[in-house]
Specification:
It contains six helices and no strands. It is globular.
């Protein structure tokens, strides 16, 4: 009932307030109770996606370096790898290390399979699609239960 009252207050505030007051009231609502937990979950997911993105980029650049001996790719990997690990460290500081590591690794595997399917037009069997579905369910369960 309290959440309904808070939502009603927020809705009323949205119609009357200037933009800065709106942001302050929304932040105040998020900081109370459940809103803070939602925000923490969103932060962990955002950091996880950033970490995975940088890991995939570094992996692609290192493969390019191995195939074509591109010094530019090597330099980019040297510069971007620490950024990927910084994001991973931020994930681990907000979620348990085991949960954060499992989330990042599962998303990396799923991303590699999906890149193979969409970009390289690889065929997947029903059993492989079932495995991808279980992987997505595992990521969701880990993400929802992994807050410190």
């Amino acid at each position: 009932m309290n959440e309904i009252a808070n939502a009603a207050v927020l809705r009323a505030a949205l119609t009357d307030a200037p933009p800065l007051a709106l942001i302050a009231r929304a932040k105040e609502w998020l900081d109370r109770g459940r809103g803070a937990n939602v925000m923490a979950t969103l932060i962990v997911w955002g950091l996880t996606i950033c970490s995975v993105g940088f890991f995939i980029l570094c992996d692609s650049l290192s493969a390019n370096w191995a195939k074509h001996s591109s010094v530019t790719s090597l330099f980019a990997v040297i510069v971007l790898s620490p950024v990927a690990y910084i994001f991973f460290g931020l994930v681990s500081s907000r979620a348990n290390l085991a949960v954060g590591g499992a989330m990042v690794n599962l998303i990396l595997v799923l991303a590699a399979v999906l890149v193979g399917f969409f970009y390289f037009k690889e065929k997947l069997s029903m059993l492989q699609w079932t495995g991808i579905g279980f992987g997505l369910i595992a990521i969701l369960i880990l993400g929802l239960s992994g807050q410190k």
